[in-house]
Design goal:
- The chain has 113 residues and is mainly β.
- It contains no helices and 10 strands.
- The model has no long low-confidence stretch (mean pLDDT 96).
Length: 113
């Protein structure tokens, strides 16, 4: 099983990024998928989740109204659209299918002027 996150980078406050999580040897269509993040010196925290068919989503209060999680089961990929980014969004972002032990390697997001 491989989960590969991409799309991170350096962005100014107020900017946007779109993260992708491409799965291989793992069919995401049967699973809900989530994004987590971990900032330096902090524990990994939940960011967003989406049900297997994409009909329901849930967000951490800190990102609600700014981030959008989506999925394309044909492409076997999950996305996180991040808008109005803040410095406190700086972290390594990971995708993770709950109830499985699988994690990607993460992608770094840095929000700084």
């Amino acid at each position: 099983v491989q989960l590969v996150e991409s799309g991170g980078g350096l962005v100014q406050p107020g900017g946007s990024l779109r993260l992708s999580c491409a799965a291989s040897r793992f069919t995401i269509s049967s699973y809900g998928m989530s994004w987590y993040r971990q900032a330096p010196g902090k524990e990994r925290e939940f960011v967003a989740t989406i049900t297997s068919a994409g009909g329901s989503t849930n967000y951490a209060d800190s990102v609600k109204g700014r981030f959008i999680i989506s999925r394309d089961n044909v492409k076997n990929t999950v996305y996180l659209q991040m808008n109005r980014l803040k410095p406190e969004d700086t972290a390594v972002y990971y995708c993770h299918p709950p109830i499985t032990p699988y994690w990607g390697q993460g992608t770094q997001v840095t929000v700084s002027s």
